[in-house]
Design brief:
Elements lengths: L3 E4 L2 E3 L5 E7 L3 H4 L1 E7 L6 E6 L6 E3 L10 E3 L4 E6 L8 E8 L10 E5 L2
Length: 116
């Protein structure tokens, strides 16, 4: 069964940076467009960044554009989300998944908390 494992979250002050990683098993990363989603307390899970299967095109939610950068390393079956200039509104659990998402790909997520 395919697995996705997120890591890299933590507590950071406003203006700080983090880099999230998503390690995949099997051929998920080579077979799919991939994305990072986040779910803030009391809110729906939303897509914040996506990258095409070939890695040539990226898309971002307006709220993170210019601050987050999605990338992938197919050789390592991993993709990343470096996040800069973090703000309290970025506080959420972050998940990786295919785009469109698949129910059986959801992992545990990684918590990002932006607070002074």
């Amino acid at each position: 069964q395919a697995q996705l494992v997120e890591s890299g979250g933590g507590l950071v002050q406003p203006g700080g940076s983090l880099r999230l990683s998503c390690a995949s098993s099997g051929s998920i990363i080579s077979d799919n467009a991939m994305g990072w989603f986040r779910q803030a307390p009391g809110k729906q899970r939303i897509l914040v960044a996506a990258i095409t299967k070939g890695g040539g095109t990226t898309n971002y939610a307006d709220s993170v554009k210019g601050r987050f950068t999605i990338s992938r390393d197919s050789a390592k079956n991993t993709w990343y989300l470096p996040m800069d200039n973090l703000i309290p509104e970025d506080t959420a659990v972050y998940y990786c998944n295919a785009v469109p998402w698949r129910h059986d790909y959801w992992g545990q997520g990684t918590q990002v908390t932006v607070s002074s």
